[in-house]
Amino acid sequence: MRAAVLQEIGQEKLEVLDDVEAVGFGPGRVRIRVRATGLCHSDLSAMSGVLPQPAPFVPGHEGAGEILEVGDGVTHLKAGDRVVVCWLPACGTCPACKRGQTELCLAGFMNAGTPNFRRPGGDVFGFAGTGTFAEEVVVDAGCAVPIPDDVPFDIAALIGCGVTTGLGAALNTADVEAGSSVAVIGCGGVGISAIQGARLKGAAEIVAVDPVASRRESALRFGATKAVSPDELADAKQQVTAGEGFDYVFEVVGKSATARTAYDNTRRGGTLVVVGAGAMDDFLQLNMFELFFDEKRILPSMYGGGDVLRSYERTIALWRAGRIDLEGLITHRVPLTEINEALDQMRTGTALRTCIEI
């Protein structure tokens, strides 16, 4: 089968190969025919080494498709079922799951060290234990979440990561208060989803911050009340909050520099939500006096900060009701053979989300 493979960490281009085999099928596992997958910035971070991932590997973790085959013991799925790929499934038995913090379950991360694919030259891993830049993938049954027949594969793919992460940051982690002021730094697919979440919660002012003009324009269509470049943020803070700072600031870039900017633009007693996935050697510096004196809450948000399955259901319900726009997030579509074009679209910021049709 075909799959896009990164041979070594640090390479900028993927090789689309047709000699890749999905492996690991057996009890408790399912084989999925991938129909659509989104390109998430985390895929680029894994390729560059910002996020740890053994190579060679097949990127992609935001996918949807249909079940081809189920292993022994799998009773909730059958061949032909439409599913979204969940890269962070909950085991249900670990301490985090028992506390209701299923987004902190580490069971899914354990799969990242087991090869999902094989080529004549040896084993190939799947990013985050999945690897959806492939025609087929084999995953634990818990990674395959059934979706209704009326949800298109491209929409379902977005729900698998970016939309769930951004919406959940606003709805679950921050629990944005109606009438509040919000700033979102980084307006790709995840940031736009955070903007939609803040709008749903009734935020009065939502300032989108991004260096790319097209993304700023998109943010206004999705619910931002103002869109500025990073060097205009200080003026926006003055205009919207009289210089006090925003009630909520979402950092959706994953860098200490933007996290520090987000902190500085959060009002005293306000909330900074860290959504972006950054590097282990990129440190955010705060002094102990400001940490105590300003009483700003710093809330990391992992995969939307809530129960993933409930978040999926909520997102589908909101989409059906016309309360959120998911179709509009897909600004580009390419076949798997043009995956490197999609990477360029992500790197330059010209795409909110590129859908890879497989």
Structure, described:
- Strands 4, 6, 7, 10, 11, 18 and 19 form a seven-stranded mixed β-sheet that branches.
- The chain has helices at 41-48, 95-98, 107-110, 153-159, 162-174, 189-200, 213-221, 233-241, 256-264, 288-294, 308-320, 339-348; strands at residues 3-5, 15-17, 21-22, 29-38, 57-58, 62-70, 82-85, 117-119, 122-126, 136-140, 144-146, 181-185, 205-209, 226-228, 246-251, 266-274, 297-300, 330-335, 353-357.
- By secondary structure, it is of the alpha/beta class.
- Helix 6 links the parallel strand 12 and strand 13 (205-209).
- It is globular and about 60 Å long.
Topology:
Layout: E1 3-5, E2 15-17, E3 21-22, E4 29-38, H1 41-48, E5 57-58, E6 62-70, E7 82-85, H2 95-98, H3 107-110, E8 117-119, E9 122-126, E10 136-140, E11 144-146, H4 153-159, H5 162-174, E12 181-185, H6 189-200, E13 205-209, H7 213-221, E14 226-228, H8 233-241, E15 246-251, H9 256-264, E16 266-274, H10 288-294, E17 297-300, H11 308-320, E18 330-335, H12 339-348, E19 353-357
Parallel strand pairs: 5-9, 12-13, 12-15, 13-14, 15-16, 16-17, 18-19
Antiparallel strand pairs: 1-2, 3-8, 4-6, 4-10, 4-19, 6-7, 7-11, 8-9
Helix pairs in contact: 5-6, 5-11
